[in-house]
Amino acid sequence: MKTKNIAITYLTREISAIKSQFLIMVRNSRSRILMVSEMGKQGITKTGIDGLDKILGGGLPKGSVTLLTGPPGSGKTILALQFLINGICMFGEPGLLVLTEDIPKDIKKYIKSFDWQIESIEESRKLMFLDLTTAKMGILTKPRSNIFRSEAFDVRSIISITHNLIIKEEIKRLVIDSLSGIQINTENELSIQKDLLTLIYFLREFDCTALLITEPKGYNLSKYGVEEFLVDGIIKLSFQKIGENDWIRKIQILKLKGRVHSLKEYTFSINSRGIEILLT
């Protein structure tokens, strides 16, 4: 217990120090400091996905950070893209997609395979990309009006550039795809907790609703096994075998702070419109 209390005290001091440095950076760049009220007073952010808002009790808490976890092929990226695109088309809310493993060109091709009005979305310039992938691969690409790049992909650099984009572009929805591509200090368990706690702490301060994509590892819901304890909500996608050769997709809300929600698993399908959840 004594060791645990020391670790918590250390993390609290580190967060305070990082916060002070961050606020100085914001003032120096003449950016306004966003004040975030209590989550319950801010209302909800609707996903616009058939069935999902109902099982979420209306939508995600505005300003919250939610973990979206599931194995490869379970529909994580599709759900996250729908969350961003519905925000633009249905609610007029600009979105930012932070890519750590894919490139914007491939994601745009992926979007075009659905009936998501990609032309009007591109014209509106409300879907922004932060490309961290090409720098990792050592590829030099020309900047675009809605594609921003960074050669640094550690936690503090991502916090800084993300904050600047949120202010400049008035971003209201944020997706990081995925957490596993962010440079985390893995020297020891305390370092991992520190980096993830720092990232999630500041995402809550940015006045936007965030989805963080990850994959389960072993018995954990996430890569490092601590993310699920730090976020405000958890949406789990999975597969279930039916009969000898058939599989169906399942979605479950495992955590949603401040909300009463069901732990029931719901079947969902993926079609040309994206994800549709069966509530029966």
Walk me through the structure.
The chain has 280 residues and is α/β, with parallel strands linked by helices. It has nine helices and twelve strands. The protein has helices spanning 2-28, 52-55, 76-91, 104-112, 118-124, 133-137, 155-169, 189-204, 227-230, and strands at residues 44-45, 60-61, 65-69, 95-99, 127-131, 147-149, 173-177, 209-214, 233-242, 246-256, 266-271, 274-277. The strands form two sheets. It has a ten-stranded mixed sheet with strand order 6-5-4-7-8-3-9-10-11-12, with helices on both faces. A two-stranded antiparallel sheet has the order 1-2. Helix 1 packs across helix 8 and helix 7 (155-169) packs parallel to helix 8. It starts with a helix and ends with a strand.
How many helices? The count is 9
Stretches with pLDDT under 50, minimum 5 residues: 23-41
C-alpha Rg (nearest Å)? 19 Å
Q: What share of residues is helical?
A: 25-40%
H and E string = HEHEEHEHHEHEHEHEHEEEE
The order of strands across the largest sheet is: 6-5-4-7-8-3-9-10-11-12
Tag the structure with descriptive keywords.
280 residues, single chain, globular, two-stranded antiparallel sheet, 9 helices, alpha/beta
Short description:
With 280 residues, this protein is an alpha/beta fold. It is 37% helix and 23% strand.
